[in-house]
């Protein structure tokens, strides 16, 4: 048998690159370059009234920023804002109660105690949904703001595709420092996955900062019943259950339909936040875990394999070729995604951010395996 011209690690590296190129070419780039969605100025099917739901705990300062922007939403069909005060110890209740006196379409639901063993946020959201007047529900978080006063109108356009759920994108505000750029990179890559997979007909998650679904969809899953004791998953696990029940999922990703969130300012805060978010992944359908895991896994394996090839001088040339090929494709893909989602990052930092992102996820996975205790704020 003739010896292979390169070491087995080169072929492993090639396999990783080919998998990555498939995701770039089949999911991410076509999604980034898809035809533009209708603008707010164009006529559209947004004649149904909507209930906007926010669950807040000790978020008074954020609510002072968010509520005026929600009340200014341009939506002729009408809407209500249901604010669920989840055991706050600040003046959230008094602030929202004052708003209800001036704005009849602002409604307050107070949660004084969460039953033992139940997820606090899911319990609070369930009470809010039971109070909602309208069959279309739109969700965001207290520490988010809509990108424009057309957010509500554009998110409702997704139901006309037709759909039972609408997935939106929620970006993080730019700020100085490596942590901010890493948070925004992770958000961009995660958004590229769940939005492009759904666009290709394989929805698996959404983010509660910008998510809409019908009351009937919530009822078809029996609410959060299948995971009410799990701390996380009020968004992605609900999508999992809804898709299993045959729900149709649409994507609305135009920048005017985004929400903007305040990112964590400390590494520890982001670490705890990501641990809580990733803990729901074990409940995903196997096909979804395989699809997402294959992308992240080959990303990580690429770096381990490339590092091993650094010690094999005869393999430096194929290593350089494959590294350059993947890096070029990655820069092109993430640049196009950043342009389409209006969430741009410095191109020179993308290779570094991609490497940190891969190993950060490995560390998170190990942490969740060894220490499974989570907490809601």
From TrEMBL:
It is an enzyme of class 2 (transferase). The chain crosses the membrane at residues 6-29, 292-311, 349-370. The keyword Glycoprotein does not apply. The keyword Cell membrane does not apply. Its EC number is 2.4.-.-. It comes from the Bacteria. GO terms for molecular function: glycosyltransferase activity. Residues 51-175 form the Glycosyltransferase 2-like domain. Pfam families: Glycos_transf_2. InterPro entries: Glyco_trans_2-like, Nucleotide-diphossugar_trans. Keywords: Glycosyltransferase, Membrane, Transferase, Transmembrane, Transmembrane helix. Belongs to the glycosyltransferase 2 family. This is Glycosyltransferase. The lineage of its organism: Bacteria, Pseudomonadati, Bacteroidota, Cytophagia, Cytophagales.
């Amino acid at each position: 048998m003739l010896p292979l011209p390169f070491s087995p690690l080169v072929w492993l590296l090639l396999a990783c690159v080919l998998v990555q190129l498939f995701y770039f070419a089949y999911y991410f780039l076509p999604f980034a370059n898809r035809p533009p969605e209708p603008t707010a100025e164009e006529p559209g099917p947004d004649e149904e009234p909507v209930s906007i739901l926010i669950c807040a705990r000790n978020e008074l300062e954020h609510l002072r920023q968010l509520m005026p922007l929600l009340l200014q939403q341009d939506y002729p069909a009408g809407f209500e804002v249901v604010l669920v005060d989840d055991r706050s110890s600040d003046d959230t209740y008094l602030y929202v109660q004052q708003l209800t006196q001036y704005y009849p379409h602002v409604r307050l639901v107070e949660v004084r105690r969460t039953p033992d063993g139940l997820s606090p946020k899911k319990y609070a959201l369930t009470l809010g949904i039971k109070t909602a007047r309208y069959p279309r529900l739109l969700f965001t978080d207290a520490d988010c703001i809509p990108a424009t006063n057309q957010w509500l109108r554009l998110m409702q356009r997704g139901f006309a595709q037709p759909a039972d759920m609408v997935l939106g994108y929620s970006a993080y505000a730019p700020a100085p420092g490596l942590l901010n750029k890493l948070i925004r990179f992770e958000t961009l890559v995660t958004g590229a996955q769940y939005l492009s997979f759904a666009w290709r007909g394989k929805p698996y998650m959404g983010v509660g900062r910008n998510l809409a679904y019908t009351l009937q969809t919530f009822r078809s899953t029996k609410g959060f019943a299948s995971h009410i004791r799990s701390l996380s998953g009020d968004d992605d696990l609900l999508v999992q259950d809804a898709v299993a029940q045959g729900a149709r999922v649409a994507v609305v990703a135009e920048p005017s339909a985004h929400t903007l969130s305040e990112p964590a300012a400390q590494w520890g805060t982001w670490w705890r936040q990501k641990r809580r978010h990733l803990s729901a992944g074990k409940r995903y359908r196997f096909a979804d875990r395989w699809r997402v895991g294959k992308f992240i896994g080959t990303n990580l394996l690429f770096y381990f394999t490339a590092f091993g090839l650094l010690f094999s001088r005869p393999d430096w040339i194929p290593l350089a070729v494959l590294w350059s090929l993947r890096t070029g494709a990655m820069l092109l893909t993430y640049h196009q995604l950043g342009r389409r989602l209006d969430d741009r990052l410095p191109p020179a930092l993308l290779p570094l951010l991609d490497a940190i992102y891969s190993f950060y996820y490995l560390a998170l996975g190990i942490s969740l395996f060894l220490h499974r205790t989570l907490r809601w704020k």
